[in-house]
Structures are given as C-alpha cells and as structure tokens.
Fold:
Amino acid sequence: MRAFDFAPLYRASVGFDQMADLMDRVLTNDVSQTTYPPYNIEKTADDAYRISIAVAGFSDDDLSVEVRDSALIVSARKEDTDAEDRTYLHRGIATRAFERRFHLADHVRVTGASHADGMLHIDLVREVPEALKPRRIEIAKSEPVEAKAIESNS
Structure:
C-alpha cells in the first residue's frame, strides 16, 4: 500500500515529470516481484553498459529482445515438447517463460545482443547529442572604461 501522492508534483513543476514517474515506479514495485531470471548490470566504459541475463536452457529462437517506449523488454517462451518423454527425479533448471523489463534513461540505445554459454548479453550505449553536451563560452575582453568625475556647482 502506497502512502504518497505525486499528483501535486505534476501540477507544480515543469520538466520534473520524469523524476515523478521514476519515484512512482519505484514506490509501486511489488516487493514480491520475481527474481527469475538472475541478471547483472555492468559498466563497461564511460558511456557503455552491459546487461547479462542467465538464460540456461533457452535457445536463440526462444528469446526475444525488444525496445519499446524507452523500455528494454527481454522475454522467453520455451515449448515443452519433450516433457512427455522424460521422467525427472529432480528438476532444478527452470525453463519457465519470463518477461523482464528495464527502463532506459534518455539517450541510451541498445547496440546489440549475444547469446553464449547460457548467458544473454545486451550491450547499451549512452549517446548525448552535441546540443546537450556542455560547451565553454569564451568571454570577450573589453576596454576599460574611464570614470569621469562630474563637477558640482555649489
């Protein structure tokens, strides 16, 4: 149950709607949210990141990586065709369907995905446009202005 209402923040601010959306999303996340499949997020360079998801038992055809509305959606669906042929004494490798969402920040785009050794690697890069990068403004030198005294007629 949430006790915070962010509606006044939307009405009283300009340009902070993304911050309010983020706070709203964080506070509404269900604590009982599943942790399957496990994943890592690593920083590989100044503006490059990699998400690695453990997807043991899934083939390339079972996996789907999609970017939609500034969200990265990774999903998997495996057809259980050989379940009738096998009798498991212990089944510890989960191959159940899943969907994992990652919210992408502004100017972050997916550059590629690879699947090897039971790990799905998704590479991301942050590309800030030139117009948004900080730039130095030169200050022009001006001639000193001489102060002139005003004589009073007293």
Q: What stands out?
A: The chain has a mean pLDDT of 81. The chain has two domains: 1-33, 36-83+90-129. The longest strand covers residues 108-116.
